[in-house]
Amino acid sequence: MSGNQDIYVIHLSDGRLQRLTNHVSRDFLSSWSPDETHLAFASDRDGNLEIYTMRSDGADLTRITNDPADDMLPAWSPCGQWIAFVSERDGNREVYVMKSDGSCVRRVTENPGDDMYPAWRPP
After folding, report:
1. What is the DSSP string of 38-106?
2. Per-residue pLDDT tens digits for 10-55
3. Which residues, other chains included, contact 26 with Cβ-Cβ below 8 Å and sequence gap of 6+?
């Protein structure tokens, strides 16, 4: 283990620990895609918290948000086409949704208090 926040997977078949990220910044708050082929997670590797995706083996790292405010707590939709997340881009923490490629971002809550921990209702 590196001493900073990276993302690891434990293989239940043999107990093997596999490191998926290796960066001096924080990589954390991860969420599996429904088909288990990708992870979404938050990282401050570009100066503030943004949402990234990668394949389940750590390949194809892609930043899917790019905003000066913090974006965090990604949650995949049951169909895998959308990701809900929390952002401070409107002055406080609100829940947003976007397509899993980072397009079509829209806010879904508007509340003076912090809205946190989005979750999808199963179909």
Report:
1. EEEEEE-TTSS-EEEEEETTS-S-EE----SS-EEEEEE-TTSSEEEEEE-TTSS-EEEEEETTS-S-E
2. 888 999 988 889 888 899 999 999 999 999 999 999 999 999 999 9
3. 4, 5, 42, 43, 44
Rg (CA), the chain: 14
Say if residue 83 is exposed, middle or buried (CB neighbours under 10 Å; 0-12, 13-18, 19+).
Answer: buried
Identify the CA nearest to 87 among candidates 57, 120, 114. 114
Q: Vertex 33, ends 29 and 36: CA angle to 5°? A: 110
Q: Which is nearest to 48 in space by CA: 62, 65, 29? A: 65
Contacts of 50 (CB under 8 A, 6+ apart): 42, 43, 44, 63, 64, 65, 66, 67, 71
> What is the pTM assigned to this prediction?
0.91
Is residue 35 helix, strand or coil? coil
